[in-house]
Amino acid sequence: MVAVAILAAGRGTRMKSDLPKVCHKLGSLSMVERVLENCLGVEPQRRLVIVGYQRERVQQSLAAHAGLEFVEQAQQLGTGHAVQQLLPYLEDFTGDLLVLNGDVPLLRSSTIKHLLETHQTNQNAATLLTAQMPNPQGYGRVFCDGENRLTQIIEDRDCTAAQKQNHRINAGVYCFNWHKLASVLPKLEANNDQKEYYLTDVVNFLDPVMAVDVEDYEEILGINDRKQLSSAYDILQTRVKDAWMKAGVTLINPDSITIDDTVELQPDVIIEPQTHLRGKTKIGSGTKVGPGSLIENSQLGQQVTVLYSVVSDSVVKDNTRIGPYAHLRGHAEVGEACRIGNFVEVKKSKIGDRTNAAHLSYLGDATLGNQVNIGCGTITANYDGVKKHPTTIGDRTKTGSNSVLVAPITLGADVTVGAGSVITKDVPDDCLVIARSRQVERKGWRMKSDS
Ligand code: UD1
Ligand code: CA
Question: Where are the alpha helices (DSSP H) in 285-413?
Fold first, then answer.
Protein backbone atom coordinates (compact mmCIF):
# COMPACT_ATOMS: atom_id res chain seq x y z
CA MET A 1 0.00 0.00 0.00
CA VAL A 2 1.22 3.44 -0.89
CA ALA A 3 0.02 6.83 0.30
CA VAL A 4 1.23 10.12 -1.10
CA ALA A 5 1.58 13.35 0.84
CA ILE A 6 2.33 16.65 -0.86
CA LEU A 7 3.74 19.51 1.18
CA ALA A 8 1.91 22.63 0.06
CA ALA A 9 1.31 24.70 3.18
CA GLY A 10 4.14 27.20 2.87
CA ARG A 11 3.76 30.72 1.58
CA GLY A 12 6.88 30.78 -0.56
CA THR A 13 8.19 34.12 0.66
CA ARG A 14 10.91 34.23 -1.96
CA MET A 15 8.30 34.43 -4.74
CA LYS A 16 7.29 37.89 -3.42
CA SER A 17 3.71 37.08 -4.30
CA ASP A 18 0.26 37.20 -2.79
CA LEU A 19 -0.46 33.85 -4.45
CA PRO A 20 0.78 30.77 -2.55
CA LYS A 21 3.94 29.52 -4.25
CA VAL A 22 2.58 26.11 -5.23
CA CYS A 23 -0.35 27.79 -7.06
CA HIS A 24 1.93 29.55 -9.51
CA LYS A 25 1.48 28.13 -12.96
CA LEU A 26 3.97 26.23 -14.99
CA GLY A 27 2.31 26.18 -18.39
CA SER A 28 -1.32 25.19 -18.09
CA LEU A 29 -1.01 23.57 -14.66
CA SER A 30 -0.13 24.88 -11.22
CA MET A 31 3.04 23.57 -9.59
CA VAL A 32 1.13 21.52 -7.03
CA GLU A 33 -1.11 20.03 -9.71
CA ARG A 34 1.97 18.89 -11.59
CA VAL A 35 3.43 17.32 -8.47
CA LEU A 36 0.19 15.42 -7.95
CA GLU A 37 0.01 14.24 -11.56
CA ASN A 38 3.63 13.11 -11.50
CA CYS A 39 2.98 10.67 -8.68
CA LEU A 40 -0.27 9.13 -9.97
CA GLY A 41 1.81 6.51 -11.81
CA VAL A 42 2.43 4.64 -8.53
CA GLU A 43 -1.34 4.34 -8.06
CA PRO A 44 -1.48 5.58 -4.47
CA GLN A 45 -4.38 4.41 -2.30
CA ARG A 46 -4.45 7.69 -0.42
CA ARG A 47 -3.50 11.16 -1.63
CA LEU A 48 -3.07 13.79 1.04
CA VAL A 49 -2.21 17.42 0.50
CA ILE A 50 -0.92 19.46 3.42
CA VAL A 51 -2.31 22.96 3.17
CA GLY A 52 -2.03 26.07 5.30
CA TYR A 53 -1.22 29.45 3.78
CA GLN A 54 -4.29 30.46 1.72
CA ARG A 55 -5.54 26.88 1.80
CA GLU A 56 -8.67 27.71 -0.25
CA ARG A 57 -6.60 28.80 -3.22
CA VAL A 58 -4.44 25.69 -3.06
CA GLN A 59 -7.54 23.49 -2.85
CA GLN A 60 -9.09 25.37 -5.73
CA SER A 61 -6.07 24.79 -7.94
CA LEU A 62 -6.56 21.04 -7.36
CA ALA A 63 -10.32 21.09 -7.94
CA ALA A 64 -10.04 18.87 -11.02
CA HIS A 65 -8.86 15.96 -8.85
CA ALA A 66 -11.45 14.01 -6.87
CA GLY A 67 -10.66 12.01 -3.75
CA LEU A 68 -7.90 14.18 -2.29
CA GLU A 69 -7.63 14.55 1.47
CA PHE A 70 -6.64 18.02 2.63
CA VAL A 71 -4.73 18.16 5.89
CA GLU A 72 -4.43 21.51 7.61
CA GLN A 73 -1.12 22.80 8.94
CA ALA A 74 -2.42 25.96 10.57
CA GLN A 75 1.01 27.37 11.38
CA GLN A 76 3.89 26.62 9.07
CA LEU A 77 6.62 25.49 11.43
CA GLY A 78 8.65 23.54 8.88
CA THR A 79 8.53 20.51 6.63
CA GLY A 80 8.82 18.10 9.60
CA HIS A 81 5.94 19.83 11.36
CA ALA A 82 3.93 19.55 8.14
CA VAL A 83 4.38 15.77 8.02
CA GLN A 84 3.53 15.51 11.75
CA GLN A 85 0.03 16.73 10.83
CA LEU A 86 -0.52 13.41 9.03
CA LEU A 87 -0.35 11.39 12.24
CA PRO A 88 -4.09 11.44 13.08
CA TYR A 89 -5.04 10.86 9.44
CA LEU A 90 -2.80 7.84 8.88
CA GLU A 91 -3.27 6.21 12.29
CA ASP A 92 -4.34 2.89 10.83
CA PHE A 93 -2.28 3.08 7.67
CA THR A 94 0.25 0.35 7.06
CA GLY A 95 2.47 0.74 4.05
CA ASP A 96 4.81 3.23 2.48
CA LEU A 97 4.40 6.96 2.41
CA LEU A 98 5.75 8.98 -0.48
CA VAL A 99 6.40 12.60 0.54
CA LEU A 100 6.81 15.19 -2.17
CA ASN A 101 7.61 18.87 -1.88
CA GLY A 102 4.90 20.88 -3.62
CA ASP A 103 7.56 23.05 -5.25
CA VAL A 104 9.42 20.29 -7.13
CA PRO A 105 7.21 19.94 -10.21
CA LEU A 106 9.44 18.51 -12.97
CA LEU A 107 9.83 14.98 -11.62
CA ARG A 108 9.17 12.20 -14.08
CA SER A 109 6.75 9.45 -13.06
CA SER A 110 9.43 6.89 -13.90
CA THR A 111 11.78 8.45 -11.33
CA ILE A 112 9.15 8.26 -8.59
CA LYS A 113 8.46 4.63 -9.49
CA HIS A 114 12.16 3.81 -9.38
CA LEU A 115 12.48 5.44 -5.94
CA LEU A 116 9.55 3.41 -4.59
CA GLU A 117 10.88 0.15 -6.05
CA THR A 118 14.35 0.71 -4.59
CA HIS A 119 12.76 1.48 -1.24
CA GLN A 120 10.63 -1.66 -1.26
CA THR A 121 13.29 -4.03 -2.61
CA ASN A 122 15.76 -2.97 0.07
CA GLN A 123 13.13 -2.78 2.82
CA ASN A 124 14.50 0.60 3.84
CA ALA A 125 13.11 2.73 6.63
CA ALA A 126 13.52 5.69 4.31
CA THR A 127 14.77 6.25 0.77
CA LEU A 128 15.55 9.70 -0.57
CA LEU A 129 16.01 11.08 -4.00
CA THR A 130 19.28 12.94 -4.36
CA ALA A 131 21.26 14.55 -7.16
CA GLN A 132 24.68 15.87 -7.94
CA MET A 133 23.81 19.52 -8.51
CA PRO A 134 26.17 21.75 -10.50
CA ASN A 135 24.94 24.68 -8.40
CA PRO A 136 23.76 23.27 -5.05
CA GLN A 137 23.13 26.63 -3.43
CA GLY A 138 19.96 26.68 -1.34
CA TYR A 139 19.53 22.90 -1.17
CA GLY A 140 20.03 20.61 1.80
CA ARG A 141 23.31 18.66 1.49
CA VAL A 142 23.25 14.89 1.83
CA PHE A 143 26.04 13.04 3.63
CA CYS A 144 26.52 9.28 3.33
CA ASP A 145 28.83 6.68 4.85
CA GLY A 146 31.08 4.40 2.78
CA GLU A 147 28.15 2.05 2.00
CA ASN A 148 25.89 4.73 0.57
CA ARG A 149 23.89 4.76 3.81
CA LEU A 150 22.66 8.19 4.58
CA THR A 151 23.94 9.70 7.81
CA GLN A 152 22.88 13.34 7.77
CA ILE A 153 21.15 16.09 5.82
CA ILE A 154 22.25 19.63 6.54
CA GLU A 155 20.36 22.61 5.18
CA ASP A 156 22.37 25.05 3.09
CA ARG A 157 22.06 27.80 5.70
CA ASP A 158 23.23 25.46 8.48
CA CYS A 159 26.26 24.19 6.52
CA THR A 160 29.85 25.14 7.24
CA ALA A 161 31.93 26.37 4.29
CA ALA A 162 33.48 22.90 4.00
CA GLN A 163 30.07 21.15 4.05
CA LYS A 164 28.88 23.47 1.30
CA GLN A 165 31.48 21.90 -1.01
CA ASN A 166 29.30 18.78 -1.11
CA HIS A 167 27.21 18.93 -4.28
CA ARG A 168 24.98 15.97 -3.42
CA ILE A 169 21.63 17.51 -2.56
CA ASN A 170 18.29 16.44 -1.15
CA ALA A 171 15.60 16.61 -3.83
CA GLY A 172 12.71 16.89 -1.37
CA VAL A 173 11.25 13.57 -2.53
CA TYR A 174 11.09 10.81 0.03
CA CYS A 175 9.78 7.33 0.56
CA PHE A 176 9.14 6.22 4.15
CA ASN A 177 8.01 3.10 5.91
CA TRP A 178 5.08 4.91 7.50
CA HIS A 179 5.05 2.90 10.70
CA LYS A 180 8.72 3.71 11.36
CA LEU A 181 8.39 7.35 10.36
CA ALA A 182 5.34 7.81 12.60
CA SER A 183 7.26 6.57 15.62
CA VAL A 184 10.10 9.10 15.18
CA LEU A 185 8.18 12.19 14.00
CA PRO A 186 7.50 13.34 17.59
CA LYS A 187 11.26 13.42 18.24
CA LEU A 188 11.94 16.33 15.87
CA GLU A 189 13.33 19.51 17.37
CA ALA A 190 13.60 22.99 15.95
CA ASN A 191 17.24 23.63 16.79
CA ASN A 192 18.48 25.14 13.55
CA ASP A 193 18.99 28.51 11.92
CA GLN A 194 15.31 28.86 10.93
CA LYS A 195 13.88 27.50 14.22
CA GLU A 196 11.80 25.09 12.16
CA TYR A 197 11.01 21.40 12.46
CA TYR A 198 12.89 19.87 9.54
CA LEU A 199 11.60 16.66 7.96
CA THR A 200 15.16 15.96 6.92
CA ASP A 201 16.15 15.42 10.57
CA VAL A 202 14.18 12.15 10.73
CA VAL A 203 17.09 10.46 8.97
CA ASN A 204 19.01 10.82 12.25
CA PHE A 205 16.54 8.43 13.90
CA LEU A 206 15.84 5.97 11.08
CA ASP A 207 17.81 3.02 9.80
CA PRO A 208 18.51 2.01 7.11
CA VAL A 209 18.18 5.17 5.03
CA MET A 210 19.30 5.04 1.43
CA ALA A 211 19.89 7.76 -1.15
CA VAL A 212 19.08 7.26 -4.83
CA ASP A 213 20.70 9.63 -7.30
CA VAL A 214 18.53 10.90 -10.11
CA GLU A 215 20.27 10.89 -13.51
CA ASP A 216 18.84 14.12 -14.85
CA TYR A 217 19.22 16.73 -12.12
CA GLU A 218 16.84 19.08 -13.95
CA GLU A 219 13.97 16.87 -12.79
CA ILE A 220 14.40 17.84 -9.19
CA LEU A 221 14.84 21.56 -9.45
CA GLY A 222 12.99 23.16 -6.56
CA ILE A 223 11.21 26.41 -7.25
CA ASN A 224 11.65 29.12 -4.68
CA ASP A 225 11.68 32.30 -6.75
CA ARG A 226 10.53 33.69 -10.11
CA LYS A 227 13.86 33.06 -11.77
CA GLN A 228 13.66 29.35 -10.91
CA LEU A 229 10.02 29.30 -12.06
CA SER A 230 11.10 30.61 -15.43
CA SER A 231 13.99 28.11 -15.73
CA ALA A 232 11.59 25.29 -14.87
CA TYR A 233 9.21 26.49 -17.59
CA ASP A 234 12.04 26.44 -20.12
CA ILE A 235 12.99 22.90 -19.16
CA LEU A 236 9.38 21.77 -19.49
CA GLN A 237 9.09 23.48 -22.88
CA THR A 238 12.24 21.81 -24.16
CA ARG A 239 10.86 18.42 -23.12
CA VAL A 240 7.51 19.06 -24.82
CA LYS A 241 8.97 20.49 -28.04
CA ASP A 242 11.65 17.80 -28.38
CA ALA A 243 8.95 15.13 -28.03
CA TRP A 244 6.79 16.70 -30.77
CA MET A 245 9.70 17.10 -33.17
CA LYS A 246 10.51 13.43 -32.59
CA ALA A 247 6.88 12.62 -33.38
CA GLY A 248 7.02 14.35 -36.77
CA VAL A 249 6.03 17.94 -36.08
CA THR A 250 8.05 20.76 -37.68
CA LEU A 251 8.86 23.66 -35.37
CA ILE A 252 10.46 26.64 -37.04
CA ASN A 253 12.61 28.52 -34.56
CA PRO A 254 11.42 26.49 -31.53
CA ASP A 255 12.80 28.98 -29.03
CA SER A 256 10.11 31.46 -30.04
CA ILE A 257 7.30 28.87 -29.76
CA THR A 258 5.53 27.66 -26.59
CA ILE A 259 3.41 24.51 -26.39
CA ASP A 260 1.49 23.43 -23.28
CA ASP A 261 1.95 19.77 -22.43
CA THR A 262 -1.82 19.33 -22.72
CA VAL A 263 -1.72 20.00 -26.50
CA GLU A 264 -2.03 17.18 -29.07
CA LEU A 265 -0.46 17.40 -32.52
CA GLN A 266 -0.50 15.05 -35.51
CA PRO A 267 2.56 14.37 -37.65
CA ASP A 268 3.29 16.94 -40.38
CA VAL A 269 1.87 19.84 -38.42
CA ILE A 270 4.05 22.90 -39.03
CA ILE A 271 4.39 25.52 -36.32
CA GLU A 272 5.93 28.80 -37.42
CA PRO A 273 7.75 31.27 -35.14
CA GLN A 274 6.10 33.27 -32.34
CA THR A 275 3.22 30.85 -32.04
CA HIS A 276 1.70 29.67 -28.76
CA LEU A 277 -0.43 26.55 -28.35
CA ARG A 278 -2.32 26.40 -25.08
CA GLY A 279 -4.64 24.20 -23.07
CA LYS A 280 -6.58 21.36 -24.65
CA THR A 281 -5.70 22.24 -28.24
CA LYS A 282 -5.65 19.55 -30.95
CA ILE A 283 -4.18 20.11 -34.42
CA GLY A 284 -4.58 17.82 -37.44
CA SER A 285 -1.98 16.68 -39.91
CA GLY A 286 -0.74 19.09 -42.60
CA THR A 287 -1.98 22.13 -40.72
CA LYS A 288 0.28 25.15 -40.54
CA VAL A 289 0.00 27.60 -37.66
CA GLY A 290 1.80 30.91 -37.52
CA PRO A 291 3.81 32.94 -37.60
CA GLY A 292 2.44 34.98 -34.74
CA SER A 293 -0.61 33.00 -33.62
CA LEU A 294 -2.24 31.95 -30.35
CA ILE A 295 -4.38 28.82 -30.28
CA GLU A 296 -6.14 28.09 -27.01
CA ASN A 297 -8.40 25.14 -26.14
CA SER A 298 -9.27 24.74 -29.81
CA GLN A 299 -9.37 22.06 -32.47
CA LEU A 300 -7.93 22.64 -35.92
CA GLY A 301 -8.58 20.01 -38.61
CA GLN A 302 -6.19 18.91 -41.34
CA GLN A 303 -4.56 21.21 -43.93
CA VAL A 304 -5.78 24.30 -42.09
CA THR A 305 -3.69 27.47 -42.16
CA VAL A 306 -3.71 30.06 -39.40
CA LEU A 307 -1.67 33.21 -39.95
CA TYR A 308 -1.17 35.97 -37.35
CA SER A 309 -4.45 35.10 -35.62
CA VAL A 310 -6.01 34.21 -32.27
CA VAL A 311 -8.27 31.17 -31.92
CA SER A 312 -9.78 30.43 -28.49
CA ASP A 313 -12.30 27.78 -27.46
CA SER A 314 -13.18 27.14 -31.11
CA VAL A 315 -13.24 24.51 -33.86
CA VAL A 316 -11.87 24.92 -37.40
CA LYS A 317 -12.47 22.15 -39.92
CA ASP A 318 -10.22 20.82 -42.73
CA ASN A 319 -8.75 23.03 -45.47
CA THR A 320 -9.91 26.31 -43.95
CA ARG A 321 -7.73 29.42 -43.97
CA ILE A 322 -7.73 31.73 -40.99
CA GLY A 323 -6.12 35.18 -41.03
CA PRO A 324 -4.09 37.19 -41.29
CA TYR A 325 -5.41 38.99 -38.20
CA ALA A 326 -8.57 37.02 -37.47
CA HIS A 327 -10.02 36.37 -34.00
CA LEU A 328 -12.16 33.31 -33.31
CA ARG A 329 -13.54 32.96 -29.80
CA GLY A 330 -16.32 31.76 -27.53
CA HIS A 331 -17.15 28.49 -29.30
CA ALA A 332 -16.89 29.57 -32.90
CA GLU A 333 -17.18 26.64 -35.29
CA VAL A 334 -15.92 27.13 -38.82
CA GLY A 335 -16.64 24.49 -41.50
CA GLU A 336 -14.43 23.00 -44.21
CA ALA A 337 -12.65 25.02 -46.92
CA CYS A 338 -13.73 28.39 -45.54
CA ARG A 339 -11.81 31.61 -45.43
CA ILE A 340 -11.92 33.86 -42.38
CA GLY A 341 -9.60 36.67 -43.24
CA ASN A 342 -8.24 40.09 -42.45
CA PHE A 343 -9.65 41.68 -39.30
CA VAL A 344 -12.63 39.38 -38.94
CA GLU A 345 -13.93 38.49 -35.48
CA VAL A 346 -16.13 35.44 -35.06
CA LYS A 347 -17.78 34.82 -31.70
CA LYS A 348 -20.04 31.90 -30.73
CA SER A 349 -21.07 31.31 -34.34
CA LYS A 350 -21.44 28.25 -36.53
CA ILE A 351 -20.22 28.63 -40.08
CA GLY A 352 -20.97 26.06 -42.82
CA ASP A 353 -18.58 24.73 -45.47
CA ARG A 354 -16.97 26.84 -48.25
CA THR A 355 -18.18 30.06 -46.64
CA ASN A 356 -16.03 33.18 -46.74
CA ALA A 357 -15.73 36.26 -44.57
CA ALA A 358 -12.56 37.72 -45.91
CA HIS A 359 -12.36 41.27 -44.60
CA LEU A 360 -13.34 43.51 -41.69
CA SER A 361 -16.39 41.76 -40.22
CA TYR A 362 -17.96 40.88 -36.89
CA LEU A 363 -20.01 37.70 -36.74
CA GLY A 364 -21.50 37.07 -33.29
CA ASP A 365 -24.21 34.58 -32.25
CA ALA A 366 -24.70 33.75 -35.93
CA THR A 367 -25.41 30.59 -37.90
CA LEU A 368 -24.23 30.64 -41.51
CA GLY A 369 -24.97 28.01 -44.14
CA ASN A 370 -22.67 26.68 -46.88
CA GLN A 371 -21.08 28.85 -49.60
CA VAL A 372 -22.14 32.08 -47.96
CA ASN A 373 -20.13 35.15 -48.86
CA ILE A 374 -19.88 37.80 -46.18
CA GLY A 375 -18.94 41.07 -47.87
CA CYS A 376 -16.25 43.34 -46.55
CA GLY A 377 -17.40 45.20 -43.46
CA THR A 378 -20.56 43.17 -42.81
CA ILE A 379 -21.60 43.24 -39.17
CA THR A 380 -24.11 41.25 -37.16
CA ALA A 381 -25.53 43.77 -34.70
CA ASN A 382 -26.23 41.13 -32.06
CA TYR A 383 -26.48 43.26 -28.92
CA ASP A 384 -29.28 45.68 -28.12
CA GLY A 385 -27.58 46.95 -24.98
CA VAL A 386 -29.31 44.38 -22.77
CA LYS A 387 -29.41 41.04 -24.56
CA LYS A 388 -27.59 39.17 -27.32
CA HIS A 389 -29.70 38.06 -30.32
CA PRO A 390 -29.10 35.45 -33.04
CA THR A 391 -28.56 35.91 -36.79
CA THR A 392 -29.24 33.13 -39.31
CA ILE A 393 -27.97 33.22 -42.89
CA GLY A 394 -28.99 30.60 -45.50
CA ASP A 395 -26.84 28.77 -48.07
CA ARG A 396 -25.25 30.78 -50.92
CA THR A 397 -26.41 34.13 -49.53
CA LYS A 398 -24.17 37.13 -50.20
CA THR A 399 -24.01 40.27 -48.12
CA GLY A 400 -22.81 43.49 -49.73
CA SER A 401 -20.01 45.57 -48.31
CA ASN A 402 -20.76 47.46 -45.13
CA SER A 403 -24.12 45.82 -44.44
CA VAL A 404 -25.50 45.66 -40.92
CA LEU A 405 -27.74 42.75 -39.95
CA VAL A 406 -29.73 43.81 -36.90
CA ALA A 407 -30.47 40.70 -34.83
CA PRO A 408 -32.65 38.80 -34.18
CA ILE A 409 -32.79 38.25 -37.91
CA THR A 410 -32.95 35.50 -40.52
CA LEU A 411 -31.81 35.79 -44.13
CA GLY A 412 -32.97 32.90 -46.32
CA ALA A 413 -30.93 30.99 -48.92
CA ASP A 414 -29.71 32.66 -52.15
CA VAL A 415 -30.32 36.17 -50.80
CA THR A 416 -28.26 39.11 -52.02
CA VAL A 417 -27.95 42.08 -49.68
CA GLY A 418 -27.14 45.43 -51.32
CA ALA A 419 -24.02 47.19 -50.10
CA GLY A 420 -24.51 49.62 -47.23
CA SER A 421 -27.87 48.13 -46.18
CA VAL A 422 -29.17 48.05 -42.63
CA ILE A 423 -31.37 44.95 -42.55
CA THR A 424 -33.90 44.89 -39.73
CA LYS A 425 -36.54 42.43 -40.98
CA ASP A 426 -36.28 38.76 -41.99
CA VAL A 427 -35.65 38.15 -45.70
CA PRO A 428 -37.09 35.08 -47.52
CA ASP A 429 -35.14 32.86 -49.98
CA ASP A 430 -34.13 34.09 -53.46
CA CYS A 431 -34.35 37.84 -52.90
CA LEU A 432 -32.34 40.93 -53.57
CA VAL A 433 -32.74 43.15 -50.55
CA ILE A 434 -31.61 46.77 -50.33
CA ALA A 435 -32.23 48.92 -47.27
CA ARG A 436 -30.60 52.29 -47.68
CA SER A 437 -31.75 55.67 -48.90
CA ARG A 438 -31.64 56.15 -52.64
CA GLN A 439 -28.96 58.23 -54.21
CA VAL A 440 -30.22 61.73 -55.09
CA GLU A 441 -28.79 63.77 -57.97
CA ARG A 442 -29.70 67.46 -58.64
CA LYS A 443 -28.65 68.59 -62.10
CA GLY A 444 -26.89 71.99 -62.24
CA TRP A 445 -26.80 72.41 -58.43
CA ARG A 446 -24.27 75.03 -57.13
CA MET A 447 -23.30 76.21 -53.64
CA LYS A 448 -24.98 79.60 -53.00
CA SER A 449 -22.43 82.39 -52.69
CA ASP A 450 -22.86 85.02 -49.90
CA SER A 451 -22.42 88.15 -52.06
C1 UD1 B 1 13.62 21.66 1.38
C2 UD1 B 1 14.51 20.68 2.14
C3 UD1 B 1 15.91 20.68 1.50
C4 UD1 B 1 15.78 20.30 0.04
C5 UD1 B 1 14.80 21.20 -0.70
C6 UD1 B 1 14.51 20.63 -2.08
C7 UD1 B 1 13.73 20.71 4.46
C8 UD1 B 1 14.05 21.17 5.85
N9 UD1 B 1 14.61 21.07 3.52
O10 UD1 B 1 14.17 22.95 1.55
O11 UD1 B 1 16.75 19.75 2.18
O12 UD1 B 1 17.07 20.36 -0.58
O13 UD1 B 1 13.54 21.26 -0.01
O14 UD1 B 1 13.72 21.48 -2.86
O15 UD1 B 1 12.78 20.02 4.25
N16 UD1 B 1 6.09 23.47 3.51
C17 UD1 B 1 4.96 23.18 4.25
N18 UD1 B 1 4.93 23.56 5.55
C19 UD1 B 1 5.96 24.19 6.18
C20 UD1 B 1 7.12 24.49 5.40
C21 UD1 B 1 7.15 24.10 4.06
O22 UD1 B 1 4.02 22.60 3.74
O23 UD1 B 1 5.83 24.49 7.36
C24 UD1 B 1 6.12 23.08 2.09
C25 UD1 B 1 6.29 24.25 1.14
O26 UD1 B 1 5.02 24.74 0.73
C27 UD1 B 1 7.06 23.64 -0.01
C28 UD1 B 1 7.83 22.49 0.61
O29 UD1 B 1 7.24 22.24 1.87
O30 UD1 B 1 6.21 23.13 -1.01
C31 UD1 B 1 9.32 22.80 0.78
O32 UD1 B 1 9.48 23.93 1.59
P33 UD1 B 1 10.64 24.99 1.39
O34 UD1 B 1 10.52 26.01 2.43
O35 UD1 B 1 10.67 25.45 -0.03
O36 UD1 B 1 11.93 24.09 1.67
P37 UD1 B 1 13.43 24.35 1.17
O38 UD1 B 1 14.04 25.42 1.97
O39 UD1 B 1 13.44 24.52 -0.30
CA1 CA C 1 11.92 24.73 -1.82
Answer: none
